[in-house]
Amino acid sequence: MHRPPILIPDSLRTLFQVVAMVLLLSLLQQNGCRCYQYKVGDLDCWGLPPPSDPLLYSSWSQNHHFSLGDSLLFLYPPSQDSVIQVTERAFNSCGLEDPIMTLRDGNSLFNLSAPGYYYFTSGVAGHCEKNQKLAIAIPSANGTFFPPAADFATAPTGSQSYPIVFGPASAQGPSTAPAAVVRAPAAMGSILVAAAAALLLGSSLL
């Protein structure tokens, strides 16, 4: 004895197809999104570079490829230092007046949310002149890459015996991996399973 076929409304079939497409699109978007968190200079402290490596921050930025969605982590004692975002002109002249943004909590996370150049320096007078500053280049979302930030830093002049805040910022070789990585493999796997289930269910109802 054969059962009569179950008639599924077209609206329900369409719903399953839409759900499957949404899940697959979410999978594709997450698969292309890998955001990194970089500890500035690969150091435990954002401070004056050591006399042995006065261009530490310039070299560090040029040895990393930053992308949209990445973030910079500045660690420093808030009672002794700070981070300010400045214009290119202020970066070159070490002008601390009228910064774009001031960070002074000692554990500052800056999100690189738009393409272009970002310029940072210490908010402490005299530190920028001693090369405690950082320039970052971010390519656009379509893959257009901005030229590497120019090496604006120059070797410090005068005495090399200036103090290093919060202990010496010992030079380290360029790291091959950022300080922290944010990935979503578990989420992508769940979305893939859900999308496959929706497609199978939708096909069985057709």
UniProtKB/TrEMBL annotation:
Which organism is the protein's source? Ensete ventricosum
**Keyword NAD in annotation:** no
**Which named protein is this?**
Phytocyanin domain-containing protein
Q: Where in the cell is it found?
A: Endomembrane system; Membrane
Q: What is the lineage of its organism?
A: Eukaryota, Viridiplantae, Streptophyta, Embryophyta, Tracheophyta
UniProt keywords (A-Z) are: Disulfide bond, Glycoprotein, GPI-anchor, Lipoprotein, Membrane, Signal
In terms of superkingdom, the source organism counts as Eukaryota
Q: Which family does it belong to?
A: Belongs to the early nodulin-like (ENODL) family.
A matching Pfam family: Cu_bind_like
Q: Name one GO cellular component term.
A: plasma membrane
Q: What is its main location?
A: membrane
